[in-house]
Design brief:
With about 200 residues, this protein is an alpha+beta fold. The protein contains four helices and ten strands.
Amino acid sequence: MRIKSGDGHRGWTVIHQARRAWRGSFEGVWLGVEESAGHWMVGRQHDGQSMDDGFDGDGNWATSRYFRDDNEYLNMRRALAAYDEEAQNASDVWTTIWNQRTHEAVARHLAHRVPFPTPVQLSAGWFGRGLTGSYSPYGATVLCDGPVAKYELIRYLQGQTRFREVVTEPGSVSEEDAYQMIINATGPVRFQCRGMTFYLSE
């Protein structure tokens, strides 16, 4: 029984899951979060004979790795690293597309965590410092629904900070604070992180 992403499962919200065949059997993994506590979890599905037998009749899975520190941002980062590792250990589950879809699923979940009180149209964007002073890298969207704009901004943030150390430059907010500002946003917002400017604009 595959669990639909976004559904609750024994107190956990399923953010992402994947399962693939390998030499006559199926292996899989899944990523979950416990919203009320800010805890994250990586689960290894049971090895089986189909796409639908990764969980037993009671909905149990094979093994779990929990991330239960007081800092949800660090829990998320550590869980994503562990999820990547588990997917690579689960035979043929990990692919570059799997990696992309995982971060998209996390961004989508975070973007919908704090609802907008009224519908709003926003654009998301970022710009950075040019290496020569003549060109500054940037990205931006057209106006779109608030949750979509938040999703796009989180994707920009992921793309610019994902492979770098968790540090804060002078004049910039931390990556943890940047995520929280986007999650909590219900209107325009602007901040610097890692020397780049990110924004939601009307």
